[in-house]
Amino acid sequence: MMTTTTANEGSVPIRSEHDVVTSRQLVRKLTQQLNFSLVDQTKMITAASELSRNTLIYGGGGDMTWQLRQEGIRHGLTLNFIDQGPGIPDMELAMKDGWTSGSGLGKGLSGSKRLVNDFDIQSVVGQGTRVTITRWK
């Protein structure tokens, strides 16, 4: 699957470590396009990197979709990380700082939530997970 893009939205496959880097580079470009401050760029890039890695490692790969948003005078960037992996059996536990189902630091989901303005996660065991984040300017 190839990267697809229109003026205000697109998607990037996350199937390899290289795709994690590509997603991070794209988010950097989009946050710069939106004139986010360097701090806000870094927060969104960091969250995207963590969630891309989770999509690859825990979800077995998937896609990152993005959408440039405008609500009134504010602009934002929404990212969706979608996989068809095993899902998250205990969401409350998964959102706790320090908990990991693998060898990571356990900061991915909870840390990403702190870095963005809007965070939503939906997961069904055996069907996959979708994490949606938005950062507003």
Automatic annotation (TrEMBL):
Entry-linked InterPro entries: HATPase_C_sf (IPR036890), HATPase_dom (IPR003594)
The organism's place on the tree of life at top rank: Bacteria
Pfam families hit by this protein: HATPase_c (PF02518)
Domain called Histidine kinase/HSP90-like ATPase: residue spans: 40-134
Protein name (record): Anti-sigma regulatory factor
